[in-house]
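Me: I hope this is not a bother. Any chance you could explain this protein sequence and its structure tokens? It all follows right here:
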Amino acid sequence: MNGEAAITSAAHVPGKGSPGPLGTYPGSTEGRKPADPAVIAAFRAKYPPSTPMIVGNIEEIRLDEPAHELYASDSYLGGRVMVFDLDTLQFKRGWAAYGRPLSEMSTDDNDRKYTPGGPMPKEFRGHLTLNISTDGYVYAADRMANRIQVTTKQGKFVKEFILAPTTGGGGSTGGVAFSPDKGQKFLFISDLSNNHIWFLNREDGEVLSRMGTMSQNGGQFMGLHMIAVDSKGDIYTGEVFNGERAQRFVPVK
């Protein structure tokens, strides 16, 4: 019996979700074998950080339609921001952490090591998502390092926000959304590990409030993965652990 058959053969309990490929929360890694360092080295030699295509998993895609550009983040080497022509899909530019060109991105895994509460790693650590503000800034959330980096659309580093820095495990900075006001005054950040929505001042990253705790009950979260906000301020969330559900929250007036 292969892994997929084993998963689908489990009894389904309505409202509880399936075990998923890693088992129930918090996920089992039993049976996984560490990758061969020689294989990793060969792969990275074949696909250097400046490779102008997606390498590994796509973490996020955003469109800048007026500029005819597609922004994507992949999981390669902890995460890269890449920009493609929306009409031809030709690669145009990309950057690593702190806005460094992809040609300067490190392949040394020590540059991605991070201890919660410690110094920030030189490179993005993992699960890199992004969003683009109406005033032209790119917000890249490096979840595994509990931070959000802000750059221009050309990749020039502007500032960095640290969120819940002692969070271990899956990290605190998941998806990035903006408040619906014209100036997008607030950031809404989904947090998979603490199961919160964080509300931040977009100017300086100050935490203003938070919402949610870990639970499978309605209005709470079990593996809060992604977030979106519509023009009315309704918040949409997606969970990836046992909940495996989408929820909608309407502002109280």
About this structure: The first strand starts at residue 58 and ends at 64. Confidence is low (pLDDT under 50) at residues 1-9, 20-25.
